[in-house]
Protein backbone atom coordinates (compact mmCIF):
# COMPACT_ATOMS: atom_id res chain seq x y z
CA UNK A 1 0.00 0.00 0.00
CA UNK A 2 0.97 3.66 -0.33
CA UNK A 3 1.88 5.83 2.64
CA UNK A 4 2.81 9.52 2.88
CA UNK A 5 6.10 10.28 4.64
CA UNK A 6 7.99 13.44 5.62
CA UNK A 7 11.63 12.28 5.32
CA UNK A 8 12.99 15.74 6.13
CA UNK A 9 11.56 19.17 6.97
CA UNK A 10 9.27 20.52 4.25
CA UNK A 11 9.68 17.48 2.01
CA UNK A 12 6.88 15.01 1.40
CA UNK A 13 7.07 11.70 -0.43
CA UNK A 14 4.80 8.74 -1.12
CA UNK A 15 6.32 5.27 -0.74
CA UNK A 16 5.22 1.65 -0.62
CA UNK A 17 4.64 -0.11 2.70
CA UNK A 18 3.50 -3.67 3.39
CA UNK A 19 -0.29 -3.98 3.82
CA UNK A 20 -1.02 -3.94 7.58
CA UNK A 21 -2.48 -6.98 9.35
CA UNK A 22 -4.69 -6.52 12.42
CA UNK A 23 -3.29 -7.91 15.68
CA UNK A 24 -5.44 -8.96 18.65
CA UNK A 25 -7.99 -6.24 19.45
CA UNK A 26 -7.09 -4.32 16.30
CA UNK A 27 -8.80 -3.47 13.03
CA UNK A 28 -7.53 -2.43 9.61
CA UNK A 29 -9.43 0.35 7.85
CA UNK A 30 -9.51 0.83 4.10
CA UNK A 31 -8.99 4.61 4.08
CA UNK A 32 -11.40 6.49 1.84
CA UNK A 33 -10.47 10.02 2.81
CA UNK A 34 -7.82 11.66 4.99
CA UNK A 35 -6.93 15.26 5.80
CA UNK A 36 -4.08 17.51 6.86
CA UNK A 37 -4.32 18.96 10.37
CA UNK A 38 -2.51 21.91 11.92
CA UNK A 39 -0.52 19.51 14.09
CA UNK A 40 0.68 17.62 11.00
CA UNK A 41 2.02 20.95 9.76
CA UNK A 42 4.20 21.38 12.88
CA UNK A 43 5.97 18.15 11.97
CA UNK A 44 6.09 19.05 8.30
CA UNK A 45 7.76 22.38 9.07
CA UNK A 46 10.12 21.01 11.67
CA UNK A 47 11.47 17.49 11.31
CA UNK A 48 10.64 15.60 14.51
CA UNK A 49 12.16 12.12 14.95
CA UNK A 50 9.43 9.74 16.05
CA UNK A 51 6.79 11.86 14.33
CA UNK A 52 8.39 12.09 10.93
CA UNK A 53 10.99 10.05 9.05
CA UNK A 54 11.31 7.59 6.17
CA UNK A 55 9.38 4.82 7.97
CA UNK A 56 6.70 6.98 9.61
CA UNK A 57 3.40 7.41 7.79
CA UNK A 58 2.03 10.84 8.72
CA UNK A 59 -1.55 12.00 9.33
CA UNK A 60 -4.13 11.35 12.02
CA UNK A 61 -7.45 12.22 10.39
CA UNK A 62 -9.13 9.53 8.32
CA UNK A 63 -12.41 7.83 7.49
CA UNK A 64 -13.06 4.58 5.70
CA UNK A 65 -14.44 1.06 5.90
CA UNK A 66 -13.31 -1.80 8.11
CA UNK A 67 -11.32 -4.14 5.85
CA UNK A 68 -10.24 -6.71 8.45
CA UNK A 69 -10.60 -7.36 12.18
CA UNK A 70 -8.11 -9.08 14.46
CA UNK A 71 -8.72 -11.80 17.08
CA UNK A 72 -11.08 -10.81 19.89
CA UNK A 73 -12.77 -7.89 18.08
CA UNK A 74 -16.59 -7.84 18.42
CA UNK A 75 -17.24 -4.35 17.00
CA UNK A 76 -16.79 -2.79 14.52
CA UNK A 77 -17.45 -5.38 11.81
CA UNK A 78 -15.95 -5.74 8.34
CA UNK A 79 -17.59 -3.22 6.00
CA UNK A 80 -18.64 -0.77 8.75
CA UNK A 81 -18.03 2.93 8.02
CA UNK A 82 -15.76 4.47 10.64
CA UNK A 83 -13.88 7.65 11.54
CA UNK A 84 -10.56 7.62 13.36
CA UNK A 85 -10.27 8.76 16.99
CA UNK A 86 -6.54 9.29 16.91
CA UNK A 87 -5.59 9.17 20.60
CA UNK A 88 -4.82 5.85 22.10
CA UNK A 89 -3.86 4.68 25.57
CA UNK A 90 -2.89 1.52 27.40
CA UNK A 91 -6.50 0.32 27.35
CA UNK A 92 -6.31 -0.97 30.92
CA UNK A 93 -5.93 1.95 33.35
CA UNK A 94 -9.01 3.58 34.96
CA UNK A 95 -8.95 6.47 32.45
CA UNK A 96 -8.78 4.15 29.43
CA UNK A 97 -11.52 1.94 30.91
CA UNK A 98 -13.65 5.10 31.19
CA UNK A 99 -13.01 5.68 27.45
CA UNK A 100 -10.71 8.63 28.17
CA UNK A 101 -7.46 7.49 26.52
CA UNK A 102 -6.28 11.10 26.30
CA UNK A 103 -5.98 10.95 30.10
CA UNK A 104 -4.24 7.54 30.19
CA UNK A 105 -2.38 7.02 33.47
CA UNK A 106 0.46 5.28 31.68
CA UNK A 107 0.93 8.07 29.14
CA UNK A 108 -0.99 8.85 26.00
CA UNK A 109 -0.02 6.66 23.08
CA UNK A 110 -0.07 7.44 19.44
CA UNK A 111 -2.06 5.29 17.08
CA UNK A 112 0.38 2.72 15.65
CA UNK A 113 0.21 3.96 12.09
CA UNK A 114 -0.52 7.24 10.32
CA UNK A 115 -3.69 8.01 8.38
CA UNK A 116 -2.36 9.22 5.04
CA UNK A 117 -2.26 5.75 3.50
CA UNK A 118 -4.40 3.20 1.65
CA UNK A 119 -4.92 1.16 4.82
CA UNK A 120 -4.62 2.02 8.49
CA UNK A 121 -4.19 -0.28 11.50
CA UNK A 122 -5.65 0.77 14.87
CA UNK A 123 -7.20 -0.55 18.08
CA UNK A 124 -10.87 -1.40 17.59
CA UNK A 125 -12.01 1.41 19.92
CA UNK A 126 -10.14 4.00 17.86
CA UNK A 127 -12.62 3.34 15.02
CA UNK A 128 -15.73 5.40 15.76
CA UNK A 129 -18.95 4.49 13.90
CA UNK A 130 -19.76 6.91 11.07
CA UNK A 131 -23.47 6.76 10.12
CA UNK A 132 -24.44 6.71 6.43
CA UNK A 133 -25.97 10.18 6.82
CA UNK A 134 -22.45 11.66 6.89
CA UNK A 135 -20.26 11.88 3.80
CA UNK A 136 -16.58 10.97 3.87
CA UNK A 137 -15.75 14.69 3.67
CA UNK A 138 -17.92 15.46 6.68
CA UNK A 139 -16.55 12.51 8.62
CA UNK A 140 -12.98 13.65 8.01
CA UNK A 141 -13.71 17.14 9.36
CA UNK A 142 -15.72 15.82 12.33
CA UNK A 143 -13.09 13.25 13.36
CA UNK A 144 -10.58 15.80 14.65
CA UNK A 145 -11.20 19.49 13.97
CA UNK A 146 -14.94 19.71 14.55
CA UNK A 147 -14.78 17.63 17.69
CA UNK A 148 -12.01 19.87 18.99
CA UNK A 149 -14.08 23.02 18.41
CA UNK A 150 -17.24 21.42 19.79
CA UNK A 151 -15.56 20.34 23.03
CA UNK A 152 -13.95 23.78 23.47
CA UNK A 153 -17.37 25.45 23.17
CA UNK A 154 -18.71 23.15 25.87
CA UNK A 155 -15.68 23.90 28.05
CA UNK A 156 -16.34 27.63 27.61
CA UNK A 157 -20.01 27.26 28.57
CA UNK A 158 -21.02 28.92 25.29
CA UNK A 159 -24.76 29.49 24.77
CA UNK A 160 -27.17 31.91 23.13
CA UNK A 161 -26.31 34.39 25.91
CA UNK A 162 -22.62 34.44 24.99
CA UNK A 163 -20.62 36.99 23.06
CA UNK A 164 -17.73 34.79 21.96
CA UNK A 165 -14.41 35.73 20.38
CA UNK A 166 -12.72 32.97 18.35
CA UNK A 167 -9.01 33.54 17.74
CA UNK A 168 -7.36 31.75 14.82
CA UNK A 169 -9.49 30.79 11.81
CA UNK A 170 -7.80 27.68 10.53
CA UNK A 171 -10.09 24.64 10.21
CA UNK A 172 -10.51 24.23 14.01
CA UNK A 173 -11.37 27.92 14.39
CA UNK A 174 -13.84 27.76 11.50
CA UNK A 175 -15.52 24.70 13.05
CA UNK A 176 -15.72 26.60 16.35
CA UNK A 177 -17.32 29.59 14.61
CA UNK A 178 -19.89 27.40 12.84
CA UNK A 179 -20.85 25.33 15.90
CA UNK A 180 -20.75 28.37 18.20
CA UNK A 181 -23.15 30.25 15.90
CA UNK A 182 -25.44 27.20 15.89
CA UNK A 183 -25.47 27.31 19.69
CA UNK A 184 -26.86 30.82 19.30
CA UNK A 185 -23.77 32.72 20.44
CA UNK A 186 -22.78 36.01 18.89
CA UNK A 187 -19.40 35.11 17.40
CA UNK A 188 -16.59 37.59 16.73
CA UNK A 189 -13.86 35.97 14.62
CA UNK A 190 -10.23 37.14 14.83
CA UNK A 191 -7.35 36.36 12.45
CA UNK A 192 -4.77 38.18 10.32
CA UNK A 193 -5.55 36.46 6.99
CA UNK A 194 -8.34 38.17 4.97
CA UNK A 195 -9.35 34.93 3.17
CA UNK A 196 -9.93 33.25 6.50
CA UNK A 197 -11.93 36.17 7.89
CA UNK A 198 -14.16 35.84 4.84
CA UNK A 199 -14.59 32.10 5.46
CA UNK A 200 -15.52 32.86 9.09
CA UNK A 201 -18.27 35.18 7.90
CA UNK A 202 -19.62 32.39 5.73
CA UNK A 203 -19.57 30.10 8.81
CA UNK A 204 -21.81 32.51 10.71
CA UNK A 205 -19.50 35.00 12.44
CA UNK A 206 -21.40 38.21 13.30
CA UNK A 207 -18.26 40.34 13.15
CA UNK A 208 -14.67 39.79 12.07
CA UNK A 209 -11.52 41.52 13.34
CA UNK A 210 -8.30 41.66 11.31
CA UNK A 211 -5.50 41.64 13.88
CA UNK A 212 -2.99 43.04 11.41
CA UNK A 213 -5.10 46.17 10.81
CA UNK A 214 -7.12 46.67 13.98
CA UNK A 215 -6.41 46.92 17.70
CA UNK A 216 -7.99 43.59 18.63
CA UNK A 217 -8.59 44.22 22.35
CA UNK A 218 -10.02 47.71 21.80
CA UNK A 219 -12.30 46.38 19.05
CA UNK A 220 -13.55 43.51 21.23
CA UNK A 221 -14.32 46.00 24.00
CA UNK A 222 -16.10 48.33 21.56
CA UNK A 223 -18.19 45.45 20.25
CA UNK A 224 -19.18 44.38 23.76
CA UNK A 225 -20.26 47.72 25.15
CA UNK A 226 -16.84 48.44 26.68
CA UNK A 227 -16.83 45.45 28.98
CA UNK A 228 -15.09 42.68 27.06
CA UNK A 229 -16.38 39.39 25.63
CA UNK A 230 -18.04 36.71 27.78
CA UNK A 231 -15.84 33.96 26.40
CA UNK A 232 -12.80 33.68 24.17
CA UNK A 233 -11.45 30.53 22.51
CA UNK A 234 -7.93 30.55 21.07
CA UNK A 235 -7.29 27.92 18.42
CA UNK A 236 -4.07 29.47 17.12
CA UNK A 237 -1.60 28.86 19.93
CA UNK A 238 -0.06 32.20 18.99
CA UNK A 239 1.17 34.14 22.04
CA UNK A 240 -0.26 37.45 20.81
CA UNK A 241 -3.66 35.86 20.29
CA UNK A 242 -3.53 34.12 23.68
CA UNK A 243 -2.70 37.44 25.33
CA UNK A 244 -5.45 39.26 23.44
CA UNK A 245 -7.93 36.56 24.45
CA UNK A 246 -7.16 37.21 28.13
CA UNK A 247 -7.12 41.01 27.68
CA UNK A 248 -10.31 41.00 25.63
CA UNK A 249 -12.38 38.94 28.05
CA UNK A 250 -14.80 40.62 30.47
CA UNK A 251 -14.49 40.31 34.26
CA UNK A 252 -15.51 36.77 35.30
CA UNK A 253 -15.29 35.70 31.67
CA UNK A 254 -13.87 32.42 30.40
CA UNK A 255 -10.85 31.86 28.15
CA UNK A 256 -10.33 28.45 26.57
CA UNK A 257 -6.94 27.51 25.10
CA UNK A 258 -6.97 24.97 22.30
CA UNK A 259 -4.03 25.81 20.02
CA UNK A 260 -0.46 24.94 20.90
CA UNK A 261 2.66 26.38 19.34
CA UNK A 262 5.91 25.01 20.75
CA UNK A 263 7.62 28.40 20.60
CA UNK A 264 4.75 30.47 22.08
CA UNK A 265 5.66 32.29 25.28
CA UNK A 266 2.95 34.36 26.91
CA UNK A 267 4.21 37.13 29.20
CA UNK A 268 3.57 36.04 32.76
CA UNK A 269 2.14 39.54 33.29
CA UNK A 270 -1.09 38.53 31.53
CA UNK A 271 -1.95 36.31 34.49
CA UNK A 272 -2.35 39.48 36.51
CA UNK A 273 -5.35 40.14 34.27
CA UNK A 274 -6.63 36.65 35.02
CA UNK A 275 -6.48 37.39 38.75
CA UNK A 276 -7.85 40.93 38.67
CA UNK A 277 -10.67 40.04 36.28
CA UNK A 278 -11.34 36.73 38.05
CA UNK A 279 -11.21 34.87 34.76
CA UNK A 280 -11.73 31.18 34.30
CA UNK A 281 -8.85 29.84 32.21
CA UNK A 282 -9.34 26.41 30.69
CA UNK A 283 -7.46 24.06 28.41
CA UNK A 284 -9.28 21.85 25.95
CA UNK A 285 -7.76 18.99 23.98
CA UNK A 286 -9.65 17.18 21.21
CA UNK A 287 -12.91 15.67 22.57
CA UNK A 288 -14.01 12.65 24.56
CA UNK A 289 -14.93 9.46 22.70
CA UNK A 290 -18.38 9.59 24.30
CA UNK A 291 -18.95 13.09 22.87
CA UNK A 292 -18.85 11.66 19.33
CA UNK A 293 -22.52 10.52 19.04
CA UNK A 294 -23.65 13.68 20.85
CA UNK A 295 -21.78 15.88 18.37
CA UNK A 296 -23.13 13.97 15.35
CA UNK A 297 -26.68 14.49 16.67
CA UNK A 298 -25.98 18.21 17.18
CA UNK A 299 -24.67 18.58 13.63
CA UNK A 300 -27.68 16.72 12.22
CA UNK A 301 -30.28 18.56 14.27
CA UNK A 302 -28.93 21.93 13.18
CA UNK A 303 -28.21 20.74 9.61
CA UNK A 304 -24.75 22.27 9.89
CA UNK A 305 -22.88 22.57 6.59
CA UNK A 306 -19.73 20.85 7.87
CA UNK A 307 -18.53 20.35 4.32
CA UNK A 308 -18.07 24.13 4.02
CA UNK A 309 -14.98 23.80 6.25
CA UNK A 310 -13.21 21.85 3.50
CA UNK A 311 -10.88 23.32 0.91
CA UNK A 312 -9.17 21.56 -2.00
CA UNK A 313 -9.01 17.76 -2.32
CA UNK A 314 -5.89 15.97 -3.60
CA UNK A 315 -4.98 12.44 -4.62
CA UNK A 316 -2.60 10.76 -2.18
CA UNK A 317 0.10 10.78 -4.87
CA UNK A 318 -0.07 14.61 -4.87
CA UNK A 319 0.67 14.81 -1.14
CA UNK A 320 3.59 17.17 -1.70
CA UNK A 321 1.38 19.82 -3.29
CA UNK A 322 -1.35 19.24 -0.70
CA UNK A 323 1.04 19.91 2.19
CA UNK A 324 2.36 23.06 0.48
CA UNK A 325 -1.19 24.40 0.09
CA UNK A 326 -2.08 23.55 3.71
CA UNK A 327 1.16 25.19 4.87
CA UNK A 328 0.24 28.43 3.07
CA UNK A 329 -2.78 28.64 5.41
CA UNK A 330 -5.19 30.45 3.12
CA UNK A 331 -7.65 27.73 2.17
CA UNK A 332 -10.20 25.61 3.96
CA UNK A 333 -9.21 22.17 5.17
CA UNK A 334 -7.02 20.22 2.73
CA UNK A 335 -8.26 16.66 2.04
CA UNK A 336 -6.94 13.50 0.40
CA UNK A 337 -9.32 11.39 -1.65
CA UNK A 338 -7.56 8.07 -1.07
CA UNK A 339 -9.73 5.39 -2.69
ZN1 LIG B 1 -6.15 16.81 13.64
ZN1 LIG C 1 -4.46 3.86 30.01
Structure description:
The protein has 339 residues and is of the alpha/beta class. The chain folds into two domains: 162 residues, Alpha-Beta Complex (Quinone Oxidoreductase, Chain A, domain 1); 134 residues, Rossmann fold. 29% of the residues lie in helices and 27% in strands. It is built from ten helices and 17 strands. The strands form four sheets. Strands 3, 4, 5, 8, 9, 16 and 17 form a seven-stranded mixed sheet that branches. Strands 12-11-10-13-14-15 form a six-stranded parallel sheet, with helices on both faces. It is globular. It binds zinc ion (ZN) (2 copies).
The succession of helices and strands, N to C, reads EEEHEEEHEEEHEHEHEHEHEHEHEHE
Radius of gyration: 20 Å
Strand content: 25-35%
Q: With helices defined by DSSP (H or I, 4 residues minimum), what is the helix count?
A: 10
Distance between the termini: 11 Å
Number of domains: 2
Considering DSSP H and I runs of 4 or more, what fraction of the residues is helical? 25-40%
Contiguous runs where pLDDT drops below 50 for at least 5 residues: none
Strand elements, count? 17
CATH homologous superfamily title of the largest domain: Medium-chain alcohol dehydrogenases, catalytic domain
Amino acid sequence: MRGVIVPEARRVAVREFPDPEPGPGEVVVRVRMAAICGSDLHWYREFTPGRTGPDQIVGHESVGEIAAVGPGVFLPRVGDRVALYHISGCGECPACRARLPKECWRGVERIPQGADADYQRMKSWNALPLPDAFSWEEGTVLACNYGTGYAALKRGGVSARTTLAVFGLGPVGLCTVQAGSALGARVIAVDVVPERLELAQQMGASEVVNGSEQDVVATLRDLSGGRGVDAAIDTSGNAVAQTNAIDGARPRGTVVFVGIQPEATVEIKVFEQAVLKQLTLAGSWIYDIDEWPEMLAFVQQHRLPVRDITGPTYALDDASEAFAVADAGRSGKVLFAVS
